Amino acid sequence: MRLHWADESTGIHYMEVVMPLEWQESPEGDYLLCKVLAENLEVRVRVELIQNLPAPVK
After folding, report:
1. Is 11 left (phi over 0), alpha (psi -120 to 50) or beta?
2. Phi, psi of 33 (to 5 degrees)
């Protein structure tokens, strides 16, 4: 999936093709652990900073 998010510490925006790996819940907030396919790199993205998170349609 193509994901658009902002970095939690710098505010820099990214748009990459990622493979979601795990949803992580914590007292600080929810995170999506995913793998950036072009760079073979795992990133932990704060859910509130995802700009285009898909939502289910009823």
Report:
1. left
2. -90, 125
What's the predicted TM-score (pTM) here?
A: 0.83
Domain with 31, as residue range(s), is: 2-49
Domain count, the chain: 1
Identity of the amino acid at 3: L
Identify the band that residue 53 occupies on the pLDDT scale cut at 50, 70 and 90: confident
Helix runs in 1-58, H state only: none
> Which structure tokens are listed for 28?
């600080």
Residue labelled with tokens 């902002």: 6
